[in-house]
Design a protein that fits this description.
The termini are far apart. The protein has 298 residues and is of the alpha+beta class. The N terminus is likely disordered. The chain contains 10 helices and 4 strands, in the order αβαβββαααααααα.
Amino acid sequence: MKKWIYIAFLLIATYISSAQEFICQVKVDAVQTGKLQLSIFDNLEKALDEFVNKNSWTGKQRLEDHQKISCSMFINIRSYDNDFFEASFQFQSSRPVFGSEIATPILNINDRSFNFNYTEFQPLNFNPNTFETNLISVVSFYLLTTLGMDADTFEEFGGTEYYQQAQQVASAAQSANASGWDSRGGSGEFNRFNFIRDLISQNFSQFREAMYVYHRHGLDVMHEDVEMGKEGIIQALDLLKENNQVRPNSLLLRSFFDAKANEVQLILNGGPKVDVAAIKESLYKMAPGQNRVWKEIK
């Protein structure tokens, strides 16, 4: 009897120690292929759903649902031949705002260079130091990067260990000459290798500091003091301005405002009035691609 109790305890302990960190909606769309009758697309979607949502990515104790990271993953298959897929990859993640029922976007990426090989019912196993397939590498890269960015919003420079793991994935994929990992990239394309390189670089420490200030001293205090929260947002924008002066038009800043532009506009327009003229000038310089949004700041 004691033996079975002990085995049951081990099973429970193993379950508790294996955290699933994501609540992620996974969608594979194969309309453009004209081959919707094939079961491989549904099986790919199911395999990815389990890979993302059932794996433990941090090794930490079991998390409650409200502690998990909400994200969505949309894979648009442009063509499929034998086991080769040409696709694009859209990834979005968010985190809750303290004292409210709203979520704030953290990452909003459209990766157009997502080509991979996959055979039906192929197991998806992750090893950060080994390149298995481009499918596993790309998906793992974004999950680890998201863990890092989420951690940075709760603790100053809290995401370093996850960025380092994401960089290992990127380096292994680049060494294997996998699609979409060339540091040179293409004009206007999102570049995974450079993105994680910059997140780890000391040259962008102000960006990471801004991520913390924006969320913990900005959004998370607004339920108690809107004015103080707004000041925190402006402080974070000033940090981004300083970073932009050293590294103008960086991929990190573009990704930040791709996710946050509408939110920034609503915050600056709402609550206690501030002098927005200087802030708008900085925003125009940091994110000219969002000028339509900045024009709405009054």
